[in-house]
What does this fold into?
Amino acid sequence: MNATGFRERFAGEVIGPGDAGYDQARVVWNAVADRRPSLIVRPTSVDDVITAIRFAREQEVVMAVRGGGHSVAGFSTCDGGMVLDLSRMREVTVDPVRKRAVTQGGAHLSQLDTAAQEHGLVCPVGVVGHTGVAGLTLGGGMGRLQRKFGLTVDNLLSVDLVTAEGERVHASESENPDLFWGLRGAGANFGVATSFEFRLHPQEGTIFQGMVAFPIERSLEIAERVREFVATHDDVHVALAFTKSEELGGRPVFVVGSTHAGSVEQAERDLRVFREAGGLMDTFGPKPYLAVQGAADESLGWGQRFYTKAGFLTELSDEVIGLCAAEVETIPPGTELSLWTFGGAVGRVADDAMAYTGRNARFNLSAELMWTDPADDEGRVAWGRAAFAKVQPFMTTGRYVNDVVEAGTDGAQIYGRAKYERLVALKRKYDPDNFFRLNQNIKP
Ligand SMILES: Cc1cc2nc3c(=O)[nH]c(=O)nc-3n(C[C@H](O)[C@H](O)[C@H](O)COP(=O)(O)OP(=O)(O)OC[C@H]3O[C@@H](n4cnc5c(N)ncnc54)[C@H](O)[C@@H]3O)c2cc1C
It folds into this structure.
């Protein structure tokens, strides 16, 4: 791609294969996605974003849009083509009086968390600080506070977008509401989001969080406690995991984790049901919210290889618990079967309110595999697929799009048929040439 004229028109950074720093600039979070773009551009303004889109269209090359670079499928990089890397557009501002935050399109969750916490506020986001606000929000945004405050997307008030034509569009409930509907769950399809406006909630700096690990043989008995707990505490986050515990010498365990956003006294009372059940290990306690949010930043750092497969459940049946527990026998290192609770504030939003699908889910079950040696790629993916195939019959309509890794997944599986058709109509309106196609693609 000849970028000579473009470099003059573009104020940000332009990095080609011959430039110093190219090999570092092309890296994304998932090392499996090892690709070589023709050009990596780092805009510093909305004007730069427009210039880059127009140039990529002139050159007829594909564009990969990068927010935080966490796409497990590797959608934010490409072979050939242009990467639009928003890492120089990471500003976050907070209005403490109106309880609003505005982030630029390249911001990380940690930046939003930190800026909001400076005012005793919070936006419910994901659980790893270096995930991008953009990709997470445009897909939905699950996290520890979702049962109390909803998904990230439930707290999204507006988006500034640059379309495939290089036009600026503002989308909210009152302006371009059709686009706003689609952006909330299928958002990587319609343009480059240059800024997001969020509603914030009060959250003092401390939160009660941790986990108890039980011997795997006790899974069914403990799951009974979980069912009762989640039915009676619909604002408390519970995350379950089936894995082999490194801290316990590789012992198969059933882990019950929780984040309780109420008072410490209330949390201690509520979580006794797990903490006094004779676990092997207990890490619960009051902790700084920002420390909890950053706790996995290192263990889930860049450069590892990752695969995931996930789906929603409407109930936590003994059959599913039994199947998951049995899988631990063959589970590879660095792998877990993870179950997050839904319902609460997530379930109070109507399913047709936005593209995001799965409001009747009570749990999201995912196989999550992480490893470092490329020689293990095939084996890990095969294990993940096989484990998932066993629990798939229990799953309900909808998938969390950010967890859909397989290329060519039918969009109707993610959104249901009716919503998918509505999304196709929207795609025809905003991106009829399918310029933005490095995503779980809505085909116009
Ligand atoms: C370690 C890790 C932890 C995670 N934890 C959570 C979690 O707790 N909760 C959760 O819900 N998800 C989680 N995820 C999934 C995560 O939400 C998705 O991978 C998400 O797409 C990442 O967003 P990103 O901006 O970092 O990714 P990117 O790879 O930059 O982008 C992902 C997709 O969004 C598009 N995109 C990015 N920026 C923009 C933009 N500004 N405008 C338009 N399109 C854009 C890209 O083109 C791509 O299709 C996690 C992922 C990882 C790797």
Notes: Residues 29, 65-72, 75-76, 86, 105, 126-128, 131-132, 134-136, 138-143, 188, 192-193, 300, 402, 438-439 surround flavin-adenine dinucleotide (CB under 6 Å).
